[in-house]
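Customer escalation, tier 2.

The customer says the design service returned an amino acid string that "doesn't look like it belongs to this structure." They asked us to rerun it and document both sides in this ticket. The original structure tokens are below, unchanged.
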């Protein structure tokens, strides 16, 4: 009977866990809807801004903006975007692995010299790199408490100032790009200096003379900082939506696994209970036969 009690306790424990994972799945599904709306609304704006910047800047011989200045990448900054919480499958670890692989393959020499710094957006990556004595700059975990363009812009402006002052020669982003609830695309892209863009095919084939006010150079120099801020904000929104998608998928799978485990435990319980009843009946019959014999 002690065995039956243990199985009953385990069944109750699994049922409790199943209720928690089911509730977490529902919460993530609701948050995913809002996060998806945010990134879907931003993407057309970010794409058009990049297109406009490309059309204007490609025809310029030069600009005074420091954010497009190509330098020898002696000092590198990696911006790693993760989440503050776990229970999202391999979401956070995949970002960390991608960032580590980028450092090991592309910036190994800079890392050996101690010239690779990390800016983490998310507690999971912050803890990972601090425990391993990486050069981690700042703490940006509170950005998810109020995820707005203004709050992310504060991080971007600090990065831009560091690049302008020569603290970093190159800045790269590592994050999960949102595709759908089940698929997140690990992405690594250059933030600074701003990658060079080419004129679109329409501009190349059609020599249209636009009237620009103020001058073309002034417009480009205003658009460059805006484009950098939008790029980081889009990356954070992508990662935020990916997090909820990954957690929803993970909790859904955990709920299914709990259901399968419950079936096995109930079967084991019924078998143990049947064996105990059979044993008791055998003992009763044996006792009655002994008394009559």
């Amino acid at each position: 009977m002690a065995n039956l009690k243990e199985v009953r306790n385990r069944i109750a424990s699994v049922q409790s866990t199943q209720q928690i994972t089911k509730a977490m799945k529902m919460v993530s599904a609701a948050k995913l809807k809002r996060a998806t709306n945010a990134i879907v609304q931003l993407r057309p704006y970010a794409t058009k801004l990049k297109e406009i910047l490309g059309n204007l800047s490609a025809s310029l011989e030069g600009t005074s903006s420091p954010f497009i200045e190509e330098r020898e990448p002696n000092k590198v900054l990696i911006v790693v975007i993760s989440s503050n919480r776990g229970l999202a499958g391999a979401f956070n670890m995949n970002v960390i692995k991608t960032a580590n692989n980028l450092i090991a393959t592309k910036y190994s020499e800079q890392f050996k010299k101690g010239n690779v710094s990390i800016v983490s957006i998310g507690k999971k990556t912050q803890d990972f790199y601090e425990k391993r004595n990486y050069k981690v700059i700042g703490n940006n975990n509170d950005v998810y408490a109020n995820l707005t363009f203004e709050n992310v812009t504060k991080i971007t402006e600090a990065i831009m100032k560091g690049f302008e002052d020569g603290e970093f020669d190159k800045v790269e982003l590592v994050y999960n790009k949102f595709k759908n609830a089940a698929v997140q695309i690990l992405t690594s892209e250059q933030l600074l200096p701003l990658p060079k863009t080419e004129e679109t095919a329409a501009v190349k084939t059609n020599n249209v003379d636009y009237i620009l006010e103020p001058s073309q150079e002034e417009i480009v120099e205003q658009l460059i900082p805006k484009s950098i801020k939008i790029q980081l904000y889009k990356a954070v929104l992508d990662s935020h939506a990916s997090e909820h998608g990954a957690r929803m998928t993970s909790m859904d799978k955990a709920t299914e696994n709990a259901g399968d485990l419950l079936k096995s435990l109930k079967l084991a319980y019924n078998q143990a209970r049947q064996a105990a009843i059979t044993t008791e009946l055998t003992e009763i019959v044996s006792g009655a036969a002994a008394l009559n014999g």
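Tier 2 assessment: The sequence is consistent with the input. The radius of gyration is 29 Å. The first helix runs from residue 2 to 57. Sent an explanation to the customer and offered a walkthrough call.
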